[in-house]
Each structure stands twice: as structure tokens, then as C-alpha cells.
Amino acid sequence: MADVTRYGYLGPEGTFTQMALLAWSASHDGEHVPFGSVDSALEALRRSEIDAAMVPIENSVEGGVSATLDALASGDPLVVIGEVNVPITFVLAARAGMPRADVRAVGTHSHAWAQVRGWMDANLPGAAYVPTLSTAAAAAGLSSGVEQAYDAAVCAPVAASNHGLEVLASDIGDRAGAVTRFVLVSRPGTLPERTGADKTTVMLFQRHNRAGGLLELLEQFAVRGINMTRLESRPTKGSLGSYCFSIDFEGHVLDERVGEALMGLKRVCAEVRFLGSYPREDGAAVDVAPLTTDADFAGARDWLRSLRGS
Ligand SMILES: O=C(O)C(=O)Cc1ccccc1
């Protein structure tokens, strides 16, 4: 019997991360294994207990998901092999019979809370926020029969119905059209094919904190016509004021211009963590700038070789 791919995800059932994995598995078979946190899923992946893990990486309202960016920045290397964008809608749910006006504390994931704060201020001012490991964990807590520190949950509609909760308000996100981007992470050794519509993710550690230091990193992309799609700084956690940069950019490690940019970064950075090249979910082909095609780079390399007589 062929081995079954084991996909971990931030669970339990009913999380937005599970929705991303279900979207992925429409075209990829496998077994789905829930984990209580992003860290525990990625650690299980590092220990080879699962083959890949679906985790949230950024959303259109709150920006980067620090737990994921930090877990990818240290520890044994992992690589992104795919991405899934999920439209997010939140409901406020509680045990049957709980009047909305009586809600005193709301349990949810920090990223969900950040996206409904405006609605909460306007509709339940004074309600306390109780952080939970995921939106679905907040819903599960209410139906568990165990006393919770909150009396309502912000979660996906499916999590409310899975747990027999009553929806007190729908579509409570502050921004219509909010989208979260999830990535499927695996161990190095799996390099998805180049499609011409790819992204690459890296984590860059600066050698020196000095004037123009960040510019020195960014110009490695600019001079090779590479467009960045996400740039975030994260503390290295070594000392106050010391940062590393998490960057997504268009292109695949097999593209000549990307290879040259990575070599430039390797020269000027203290450390370059390659976090994978993978197809864009939207399939939008990279717009290759003039004079940065594979042929342009190969031509220049052949010319140098001829000067060197090799
Ligand atoms: O808690 C969840 O359901 C998650 O999958 C994490 C999350 C939370 C809020 C928005 C997007 C993802």
C-alpha cells in the first residue's frame, strides 16, 4: 500500500487553518492531523511525525502571524511548498439561551480578536478578551461542559454549528473581504517545480546594524528586477533593537535572477534562511523585467567565461 501523506494543521476541527487544508486536499490526498498550536505542528514536522503542516502566515488586516514567522526563523530548517488564501468571516457564538447583552468575556484566537475589535467596541463595549489557541478551540470550550473564562466565542460559522452553539451575530469582522494566507510547510528536500508563477520566501539576518544596512539587502532584489510581495521585520530575540527580515518575493530559486539575488544576499547577510519556492495560488505569472530573463543572465555568464578563457 502506498504511504499516506500526513498533513498536520492548527486545529481542532473548524479552524480557518482546517479550511485551508481542505482547499489544498481537493487536489492532494492524505490524512489530516490536528495540533493545538502552530509550534506543536511544526515540531511534529521536524520530528518526521507528519509530512507537512498547514499554518497561517499573514492576513490582510493584521499582517504577519508572529508564531509562524518565528517558528520558521529558528530550529531545524523547514520549507514552504504551497500557499492557500482563505476569505475569513467571523461569528459571535454562545451556548443556547445566552442573551447577547449578557456576554462579559469573549474567547478567541489573537488574530481573530484583532479583526473584530471595532465590532466589539461598538456592540459589546467592556467585554473582556480571553485568548485561546484557535477560534475553534474557543467554540469547543463552550460546548465541553467545563466552566470557561469566557461566555462567547468568535469563530467560523462552521465551528459554531459543529459545537451546537447559537450564533448571536454574523459577519462581525471590521473589514469586509478579509483574507488570510496559509502556507503548507514541509522538510527540505521537496522543491516544487518551477511554474513561471512562483514565490520564494526567505528570512534574512543582517551582518551589521548600520546606515544603509536594510537598503543593502533590498538592492539585491531591486537590481535584478525582483518584486517583493511581503516584508516584515521580527526581533532576533538576541537583544533589543536586533531584527531579522522575513521576505516573500516573486520567482523561483531555479530562476537565474533569483539565484543571483540569493548569492548577493548570502554575501552581505550574516545568515540567509531559504524557506522555499512554490507556486502562487492565484497562478499570476511573474512579470519578468527587461534584461532580467534567464537568457540575459546566461549570456552575461558566458561572456565572463570567455574573458577568463574557460
Ligand atoms: O484560529 C483559527 O481558526 C485559525 O486557523 C487561526 C486564524 C485565526 C484568525 C484568522 C485566521 C486564522
TrEMBL record:
<keyword id="KW-0456">Lyase</keyword>
<dbReference type="InterPro" id="IPR045865">
    <property type="entry name" value="ACT-like_dom_sf"/>
</dbReference>
<dbReference type="InterPro" id="IPR001086">
    <property type="entry name" value="Preph_deHydtase"/>
</dbReference>
<keyword id="KW-0028">Amino-acid biosynthesis</keyword>
<protein>
    <recommendedName>
        <fullName>Prephenate dehydratase</fullName>
        <ecNumber>4.2.1.51</ecNumber>
    </recommendedName>
</protein>
<dbReference type="GO" id="GO:0009094">
    <property type="term" value="P:L-phenylalanine biosynthetic process"/>
</dbReference>
<keyword id="KW-0057">Aromatic amino acid biosynthesis</keyword>
<feature type="domain" description="ACT">
    <location>
        <begin position="202"/>
        <end position="279"/>
    </location>
</feature>
<dbReference type="Pfam" id="PF00800">
    <property type="entry name" value="PDT"/>
</dbReference>
<dbReference type="InterPro" id="IPR008242">
    <property type="entry name" value="Chor_mutase/pphenate_deHydtase"/>
</dbReference>
<dbReference type="InterPro" id="IPR002912">
    <property type="entry name" value="ACT_dom"/>
</dbReference>
<dbReference type="GO" id="GO:0005737">
    <property type="term" value="C:cytoplasm"/>
</dbReference>
<dbReference type="InterPro" id="IPR018528">
    <property type="entry name" value="Preph_deHydtase_CS"/>
</dbReference>
<feature type="site" description="Essential for prephenate dehydratase activity">
    <location>
        <position position="180"/>
    </location>
</feature>
<feature type="domain" description="Prephenate dehydratase">
    <location>
        <begin position="6"/>
        <end position="187"/>
    </location>
</feature>
<keyword id="KW-0584">Phenylalanine biosynthesis</keyword>
<comment type="pathway">
    <text>Amino-acid biosynthesis; L-phenylalanine biosynthesis; phenylpyruvate from prephenate: step 1/1.</text>
</comment>
<dbReference type="GO" id="GO:0004664">
    <property type="term" value="F:prephenate dehydratase activity"/>
</dbReference>
